Amino acid sequence: MPKLSAVCVAVLVLLGAPAVHAQEAAKSAQAAPSLEARLDALVGASYKPNEPGATVIVVKDGKTLLRKAYGIADTQGMKPMEAGMVLRLGSITKQFTAVGILMLAEEGKLALTDDITRFFPDYPAKGRKITVEHLLTHTSGIASYTSRTDYPLTMGRDVTPAQMIDSFKNDPLDFEPGTAYRYNNSGYFLLGAIIEKVSGMPYAKFVEQRIFVPLGMKDTAYEGYERSKTAHAAGHTQGAQGYEHSTPLSMSQPYAAGSLVSSVDDLARWDAAVSQGKLLKPASWKRAFTPYTLADGKPTGYGYGWQVGSLQGVPVVSHGGGINGFSTYALRLPEQKVFVAVLSNADGGVANPGVVASKAAALAMGKPFREFREIALDAATLDRYVGVYEVEKGVTRSFRREGEVLVMQRSGRSPMRLKAFSPNGFYLPDGYDWFEFVLDDKGRAASVNQYFDGKELKQPRIGDAPAERTAVKIANEAYDKRVGRYQLAPGFILELSREGDRYYAQATGQGKLEIFAASDTVFFARAVDAEVRFDGSDSSQLVLHQNGQQIKAPRL
């Protein structure tokens, strides 16, 4: 065999190098999980295989990156969830109602500036002009019928649109129309009635014939008016003994504010139609995705049936839904051409679909959220951060310690437990915001920085945390005498339960609420202003104190 020259050897080495690098690159590619696998792992971590779960779809540039089901479709029989199943949408319904109104506006059958008395001549507006646009943007000031304390007592009753409107039309306005934003189901109920009056069609038939049929959305319908036989997932509520079927709800009540059912496949078809500008003219779509501006010039962050904001620094339009047995979320990133829908068949206890959808969308566009690993901090360290911090004028954020946990509460909102990831850093376990405290030269927190959506908000400490109602330790046996079901009203039950050393109360159709003992006879909640009282050792009835009301509830 002839001896190779040094030049030949060099050439062979050079020619062989790309092959070696290619092999190494191939091995590296094989080692790195695909985007689909990463999305699956992210979403899958949020749902347990033996509990209610979700159907999920992630689409980018018209291509499906992930379409999968997680968890159980029905805990009675433990039937697995299937990706194509139909679930209640809840308030995602509102975007379809809004598009229906815009279609009628383009046809000249109504104007967004129309006063609602054009459609309801006897509506007691009391001289105030409430427009169709006010209804679309939650700026009408009309009280939301679902916020009434007695709403759970009647939600299983069938009503006509006129009957429901009569039930809330005489309630005082919450504010002058156009001066504030307050999420409102009454407004969208009225929009459904307007669609019926203007089109001459029932709301269910209008959205079917004008939206769902033209777009090939065969599994989308007003519940009770389905056109396909696709299987439905059962809705669940977390009870004292685990998940159970949700409280019955007459779908005549959510109506145009939340009555639709659909699948993630149909929602992807809907998003494709929206992205392509179907059904409406460009000007109408632009208005739908433009935040409404209040009388004082401040934007609300809500258009027509969609919330408008940003996700990891890029524009996003989105909406969530919560309804008996189900919680949902769908979002689209217009510039990145990403769409995500998460439909869950539980109304509490499982992962927040908005958080799951947002994390999936961020990963799909290549800007994943920061991941945290929890660490333990001692009480002395946590006490450094206890105090009140100013978010903005008139808005504060309080931090207090509960045992070995730091609890945060923004003014007007429910408290949330935080987890530590560093000696001065904390994150929301069911969210993507995090906080880092800045200490003064005495080692006490002088301010806290909030990080969200790629932004930093500095909040100075302005005082001590307000005194917290003190819980006392009682014997679990003393509480166990109170455990049971109490009837607040026919069909409306308050159930007391215990899990280890923690006590809970759960009202019909609502999630579990932790309560604390003030004594053997008085128990209070921290998440809401509510208290349960017993008369001495008598457990034959309780008295619920909430919102200035006292409701006696006999034990069942």
Task: Describe the protein in words.
The chain is of the alpha+beta class and 556 residues long. 25% of the residues lie in helices and 30% in strands. It is built from 14 helices and 30 strands. It has a 9-stranded antiparallel β-sheet with strand order 17-16-15-14-22-21-20-19-18. An 8-stranded antiparallel β-sheet has the order 23-24-25-26-27-28-29-30. The chain has a 6-stranded antiparallel β-sheet with strand order 2-1-13-12-11-10, sandwiched between helices. Strand 26 and strand 27 (522-525) form a beta hairpin. The longest helix is centred in the N-terminal third of the chain and has 26 residues, at 6-31. The model is unreliable at 1-22 and 25-29 (pLDDT under 50).
What are the main properties of this structure?
alpha+beta, globular, 14 helices, 30% strand, disordered N terminus, 556 residues, 8-stranded antiparallel beta sheet
Quick synopsis:
This protein is an alpha+beta fold and 556 residues long. 25% of the residues lie in helices and 30% in strands.
Strand content bin:
25-35%
Number of extended strands: 30
Number of helices: 14
* Protein structure class: alpha+beta
Largest sheet: number of strands, sense, barrel closure: 9 strands, antiparallel
Instruction: Note poorly predicted spans.
Output: 1-22, 25-29
Task: Compute the separation of the termini in Å.
Answer: 99 Å
Mean pLDDT: 90
Shape: globular
Strand order of the largest sheet: 17-16-15-14-22-21-20-19-18
List the helices and strands and how they pair.
Blueprint: H1 6-31, H2 35-44, E1 54-60, E2 63-70, E3 72-74, E4 79-80, E5 87-88, H3 93-106, H4 132-136, H5 151-154, H6 161-168, H7 185-199, H8 203-212, E6 221-222, E7 236-239, E8 242-245, H9 255-258, E9 260-262, H10 264-275, H11 282-288, E10 307-311, E11 314-323, E12 326-333, E13 338-344, H12 353-364, H13 379-383, E14 387-392, E15 395-402, E16 405-410, E17 416-417, E18 419-422, E19 425-427, E20 434-439, E21 445-452, E22 455-463, H14 476-480, E23 484-489, E24 492-499, E25 502-507, E26 513-517, E27 522-525, E28 530-535, E29 538-546, E30 549-554
Antiparallel strand pairs: 1-2, 1-13, 3-4, 5-9, 6-9, 7-8, 10-11, 11-12, 12-13, 14-15, 14-22, 15-16, 16-17, 18-19, 19-20, 20-21, 21-22, 23-24, 24-25, 25-26, 26-27, 27-28, 28-29, 29-30
Helix pairs in contact: 2-12, 3-7, 6-7
